[in-house]
Amino acid sequence: MLKFFMLLLLVFSCGENTKSSILYKTDSTIEIDEDDNKDSVLLKASHVIPTKNQMNALRDEFIAFVHFGPNTFTELEWGNGMEDPKVFNLENLDTDQWCRAMKDAGMKKVIFTAKHHDGFVLWQSRYTLHGVMSSPFQNGEGDILRELSQSCKKYGIKLGVYLSPADLYQIENKEGLYGNLSEYTLRTIPRPVEDRPFENKNTFEFEVDDYNEYFLNQLFELLTEYGPIDEVWFDGAHPKRKGGQQYNYRDWKKLINELAPNAVVFGKEGTRWCGNEAGGTRDTEWNVVPYNEDPRTMNLFADITAEDVGSIDRLMEGKYLHYQPAETNTSIREGWFYRNENEQKVRNTDDVFDIYERSVGGNSIFLLNIPPNREGKFSEQDVQVLKETGQRIEETYGTNLLENAKGYNNVLDEDEDTFLVLNDDKLTLEFELPKDIKINRFVIQEDVKRHGERVSRHALDAWVNNQWTEILTSTNIGYKRILRFPEVTTNKLRLRILDFRATPVIQHVSAHYYKTRPPVLEIKRSKEGMVNIAPKMADFKWNPNGENPGENLNKGLKIVYTTTGEVPDINSAEYIEPFQFADGNIKAVAILNEELGSVSDYTFGILKENWKILNVDSELKEHTVDMLMDENTGTFWQADENSYGNHFVSLDIGEETEISAFKYTPPTDFNSGMFEKGTIYSSLDGKSWKEIESFEFGNLINDPTPRTHKFKTAFSTRYLKLESDEITGSNTSSAIAELDFYKN
């Protein structure tokens, strides 16, 4: 510690120059001493820097994942390992199309699932027959990874490989190597195979069992015959274990370091999982995280899933400080593998662009999965979203609006090797433009390459009406922080550093403009009658991240509404928070920068707060009858198909009311129980029932949208019964997502 404080006395901060502000030795991993306190740990943390490979991974920013294999044809997320290779009945393959789509999106690297958990390999491995060599694809001569590697070189896309440590084929196969309790002996990698020599003549000696030898042999193939490889991707998934099998990652690491020296390793000490598969991001994503062991020598790595990963309190819990960027991973489709075009929803462009800004602009790497279809191509809808996302990225961030600004050249230029060391008593950077500009995005980058992560809180101001106005505050910066805010017109901007771990060192700043779009609104009501109006969310139910892209992308959005049936305008009531509303029509519109969006219109039926179920013929445990009146179209009641007679449900709506119409909302995830024909009954006492009318809804299977039936004559009642007479497709189970009744 004495030497450490002597260093502090000898080094000082400096102004606008590229002179370093190193107060302690820098490294990707720094040990915490027993006598370190919070101040010294913070200073050490600010000197933890990325390795060359980690820095390259950060620069890649937006990368692709490609899940392909037997699951593509069986429509399963996880195979069982015993699929007949013939199910991989691929006739066509267009990896050039994959890479063109990635290029259009602005992606710089692709991670390919060379082997998923099922153990089926997508290259011509010497060490197994469970793969493309036993499939109909190109008569067993096909090599998916080979073609992708060639396409990557053609289009300038970096290549990474995912070789699943888990292997269900090696577990389930009688001759399988996984967990076979074989002895650990000294073995040579790669194991020679007759008539299949390696061009790379390197060999390695490892003391391993059968499965680790198998894994190392295949890893050798991937790293020497398809490269260069820029990332090796491991995960912790274990669909099934056997025989206490252990993974010798330290041996794998040695092979990777020797054969792919530029490859960053995901899931180990290189890069880490963000903690979810939904595209969710943390508001504060520190890439300096604590470990209790030296991660450079560890064999097993636990997932880091907590909300707080790098605060000083968390750092104090560790014994080592380690630089480890997060990868924010999710899929463009509902699931990792392609299933179909009709039921498997695709993220829209707003959603993907929002995740891009939150992840890349939140000090992490965005890894987006695009699963090829059974034609060996990315589906058209996926390609279109990728293209539109790339266009938005280029339109927004392709032009730096501070290009002609007066200020600090070291952070305004495009040279990554220049930076600005701030004085501890002057933590404000001002930039002046020759004329007013409109901006709603501001990008800040610290010099993490040399100085690590230091800023913990900062603010952005704009010169408006001859005075400084604070636009927003945020937390850490790291490799990159994208600030998003309501559009402002100004010719001067000011960045203020409010708190820091050590003398801040800024590498780059830029200002940008995203063309905002007043979003389509969605009007919802709770069972208790509270109305919420917000930008409409995409119909994407797989691993929801809880973010609303329409709100995130369009800062400064104003919503106005009416309850009188009139079309809202700029002078209508502003929606601020949920409000009570019994029944009737609500119209709403989004206003952004004085531009009005399209009008959303919703008519609510009578309030369901006091509804009660009188009787029901049957219900399934996971789809109970109360789900038809919970104001949530994502849930539904389903009757037991084995119940006797027509399916029915009877309700007490709380008080006698005059009814003029009803609406049936079918489930969208279950098309085998929709009401095609039925009958409505009424009662004043809940015992004696009177038939009111029959109804018929057509084409529900192809168009599962809400249907409204208006009664010929309005009637007064307190009790209502809906009975099915005919179910779509001659099925025998009824289902209702939501049921609504309307007053006269």
From TrEMBL:
Residue intervals of the F5/8 type C domain: 599-744
Keywords: Glycosidase, Hydrolase, Signal
GO molecular function, one term: alpha-L-fucosidase activity
GO BP: any one term: glycoside catabolic process
Sequence intervals crossing the membrane: none
The keyword Hydrolase appears for this protein: yes
Gene Ontology CC entries for this record: lysosome
EC class: hydrolase
PROSITE patterns: FA58C_3
EC numbers on record: 3.2.1.51
Family membership: Belongs to the glycosyl hydrolase 29 family.
PANTHER family: ALPHA-L-FUCOSIDASE (PTHR10030), ALPHA-L-FUCOSIDASE-RELATED (PTHR10030:SF37)
Descriptive protein name: alpha-L-fucosidase
Organism (species): Maribacter hydrothermalis
